């Protein structure tokens, strides 16, 4: 399901802005972009997304700013000593002049911005902004979910109507089968003196009628539809995978009805119902 959320928070002079976008995807795929943050904070933010979103391709963009005056640069004395020792050893090995102070302080990690030691302000700001963004994202996805539920329910009503027609046509199938069999026999025996055993004819009609009977399939299909309707009313719960399973089962029942029937009218209803079901299948792929 698609959605967008944005949050901003400030803690200890650190301002974080988090934007979260989600688009349709069969599974959960999270990508973090923007400012470089601590791996532990990345995992914490990803974990909160996983708690809120079950399916979708989710992009999380983090932006960081420092509010107020810039923090002073501080000297990491331990890093400076280590850099000096390493450079001095190299200079001695190469027979060159010992390292200058300027060379030492230019080494990575020797001069550190005060922003790197914020007492946890950055992490708190990112988490707070992320929670705001997730709340907005959830609200937008909920609105889309309600619209999808309405569309699914409307299409299920259409399929239910086709099932009612199929049940009526299937009830008339045995009589139609007997009439067609009588007509065939009349043409084959026209002008002959062969007599047909009524009991055997009734038996053959019963066999044909049993092969054409789709009562069980109609009953199961109606049960699947009721379960689908029930799931669309479960607000706040992830039902996408269960919807997907029931749509597959409903499709199997319709396929069986079409395969068992030789009636053009029944086949037409089955094809129409499957067309509606295919639209439902496409929508269900977007449901969490």
In short:
The chain is an alpha+beta fold and 288 residues long.
Please provide a written account of the structure.
- The chain is α+β, with helices and mostly antiparallel strands and 288 residues long.
- It folds into three domains: 3-70 and 120-137, 2-Layer Sandwich (Ribosomal Protein S5, domain 2), CATH 3.30.230; 73-114, no CATH class; 141-284.
- Helices cover 62% and strands 15% of the residues.
- It has helices at 39-52, 77-94, 101-105, 121-171, 173-188, 198-212, 215-232, 240-260, 264-284; strands at 3-11, 14-23, 28-34, 56-66, 73-75, 111-113.
- The protein has a four-stranded mixed β-sheet. Strands 5-6 form a two-stranded antiparallel ribbon.
- Strand 1 and strand 2 form a beta hairpin.
- The protein starts with a strand and ends with a helix.
- The mean pLDDT is 83.
The biggest beta sheet, please? 4 strands, mixed
Helical content stands at 55-70%
Q: Which whole number gives the mean pLDDT?
A: 83
The portion of residues forming beta strands comes to 5-15%
- How many domains? The number is 3
Order of neighbouring strands in the sheet with most strands: 1-2-4-3
Order of helices and strands: EEEHEEHHEHHHHHH
Q: Specify the number of helices.
A: 9
By secondary-structure content and strand pairing, the structural class works out as alpha+beta
Distance between the termini: 7 Å
Q: Mind telling me the C-alpha Rg?
A: 36 Å
Q: Number of DSSP strands?
A: 6
Query: What is the general shape?
Result: elongated
The stretches of 5 or more residues where confidence is low (pLDDT under 50) are none
